[in-house]
Amino acid sequence: MRIKHLMKTKQLSQATALANICSDHPEISNRGNFKQTYLVCLCSGSPNEKLMQEITDIDCKDALEMICNLESEGDEKSALILCAAFLSRQLQQGEMYCAWELTLFWSKLQQRVEPSTQIY
């Protein structure tokens, strides 16, 4: 709850630091979506290089779960940023694992976030 409050009050550096500490803590990291929250903080306030660095060890199935969680919470912009980051990683590494699912999510989220943009 504290992290969400920090995010709402635009204290992103503090929210990012706290979410990172919680996601790395061995006792509480499994009790919440701290990694997801940490990545959302990075989407909101950091350069993409840091986000790309942080997602290197995350399994694509876990990424899809995070994207679905964000979408169901109504945070489509963060879901789109994460989806684009994971899809970019897959394409850069030449991996096809989950690429189809990520592409479908990306196109759906892109149309919702920027409906006036003609992408296709």
From TrEMBL:
UniProt keyword annotation of Cell membrane present: no
Coiled-coil ranges per the record?
none
* Span of domain Zinc finger protein Rlf/292/654 TPR repeats: 54-118
Q: MF terms per GO, please?
A: DNA binding; DNA-binding transcription factor activity, RNA polymerase II-specific; zinc ion binding
- Please provide one cellular component term from the Gene Ontology annotations of this protein: nucleus
Presence of the UniProt keyword Transcription regulation in the record: yes
- Supply the alphabetized keyword list: DNA-binding, Metal-binding, Nucleus, Phosphoprotein, Repeat, Transcription, Transcription regulation, Zinc, Zinc-finger
- Compartments (UniProt record): Nucleus
Q: What is its main location?
A: nucleus
Assigned protein family: Belongs to the krueppel C2H2-type zinc-finger protein family.
Under PANTHER family, the record lists: ZINC FINGER PROTEIN 292, ZINC FINGER PROTEIN RLF
Protein name (Swiss-Prot/TrEMBL)? Zinc finger protein Rlf/292/654 TPR repeats domain-containing protein
Source species? Micrurus paraensis
